[in-house]
Amino acid sequence: MDRLEAMRMFVRVVEVNSFNKAAEGLSLPPSTVTRALKELESHLGVRLLQRTTRRLSLTPDGSIYYAHCRRLLDELNEVESGFAGNVGRPRGKLRVDMTPSFARNFVIPSVGQFLDRYPEVQIAVTVSDRPVDLVQEGIDCVIRAGQPEDSTSLVARRIASFGWTVCAAPSYIAQYGAPQTLEDLQDHHAVGYLLGRTGREMDWVFSEGHSTISVPVKSRMSTNDTSTYVQAGLQGLGLICTASYLLRPHILSGALMPLLTGYQSPRVPISVMYPQNRHLSPTVRAFIDWVAELMTESSPN
Q1: Alpha-carbon gap, residue 197 to 215, rounded angstroms
Q2: What CATH number has the domain bearing residue 124?
Q3: pTM for this one?
Q4: Other C-beta atoms lying within 10 Å of the C-beta of residue 81
Q5: pLDDT tens for residues 184-215?
Q6: In terms of domains, do 111 and 236 share one?
Q7: One-character DSSP codes across 3-40
C-alpha cells in the first residue's frame, strides 16, 4: 500500500463526504479508493470512518488522523512547490467554476494559451453563478464578480474590476433617439434584467460624487440570462446596461453604441476565491496568475 496516496484519498473522502465524488476528483475508480481506505484502516488497526447507506462520518480516531493527514499533506505540498524543478511545476487536473459570461468572453477564447504554457495541466471548467461549496464539490477555485462576502473559509484575491456601460443598437437610436441625461431615461424603454434572488428587475446605478444614484427603467421585455440580455440589445429591443467587458466587442464592431458616457458607474470587483485552510498548489497559483494577467491585458473599463 502506498500510504501517502492512501492518506490523500482519505482526506479527499472526508472533504467531499463521498467515496464516489472523491474517486471522481482524483480520476480513480471508486473501487480503488474503497480498497485503499480499507487497507489504511487495517494498517492503523482502527476504524477511521463510520459508513451507512446515507452518510459518512469520522470516528474519534478518524478525526485525529484526518487533522494530522491534512497538516502533513499541506506541509509536503508547500515543500514541493518551493522547488524550481519538476516537482513544483503546475500539473494535474484543475477544476474551476465561473459565471457563463466570464467563461464565454474571457477564459474559453484564451485558455489555449494557458494549456500551451502548462502542457501537464488538464482543466475542467464548470459554469454557474450560484454559491459553491468548493471543498464538498471538489472545486479548486471560483471566479466571481461583486464584493466577496466575509468568509473564514475562503481567500478572495481581486484580479480586476469593471464598470457598467449603457448601450443601444443603431436601429433603436434611429427610431427613438439617444438619451442625453439620466432624466431622459424615463422617455425610453430598456431591456430589463431579472435578479436571481428576488426576481425583480435591476435598477441602473450611477456614481454621483461620493454617493450613488439608482435609476429605475421601463422595460417591455426582461430576462435573467446575460447572453439573452445582450442579444436583445443587439436586436434593438431596448437600452441595455451591463458589464463593460461584455459590451466591448459589440461597441468596437459598431453593433452597439455607448450612451450617457458622461456618467460613471460604481466599479465592480472580479475575484478568484479558494479555500483558506488548503495550501495553494502550483497549478492553482499558476491559473490565478494567468487570469490576472489576462484581465490586465484586456483592461475592461
Answers
A1: 20
A2: 3.40.190.10
A3: 0.67
A4: 17
A5: 999 999 999 998 777 788 999 998 777 889 99
A6: no
A7: HHHHHHHHHHHHHHT-HHHHHHHHT--HHHHHHHHHHH
